[in-house]
Amino acid sequence: MPNALDNGMPPPAQAQPGAQGNGLQQSGPPANGAAPTAMAPPPPPTHEQTVAALRHFDAIKTELTTLLQDPAAGRSDLKSKIIDGVTKLVSERMLSAPQAVQQLAQVPSDPLQQRKWMQTMLAQAMQAEQGIVEHHRNTNLGSGDWATEAQKHVSNPDDHMHHMAALAANYGGGAK
What's the predicted TM-score (pTM) here? Predict the structure, then answer.
């Protein structure tokens, strides 16, 4: 859930310069201080990683949408409700505790800024979700037969954190 309730990642070609990094994007210059170099695109996400990402983004979008529909959003401090939402995501193993702490530290104190922050996080989650699906679709055409595809791929929700970590590593974000 870096960037509030988001652990999303748009494909590298869609990364926006100057935007706050999310949990799967590197932020800032390389650790050795060298200038960034052109890198090969990340490998396409596996089926399991794509399913984990969709499950992840759906949980994040649900929490953000619920918070944004609160009549007090933008008028009152919702930090306690944001904390509750993040806690729920941690309990569902959508986020790790360190990711949650990192994101909660970024929540603005001003109610209007909180609303804008949540809207930005929602937009980033939606963009990242679309990017992952597009990247997977462009490299995994499949057979077109649902029954055949369903038998080939099985995704276990218990492996969510593992698949998200692998996806983060592919997109250059990894654990810091």
Answer: 0.67
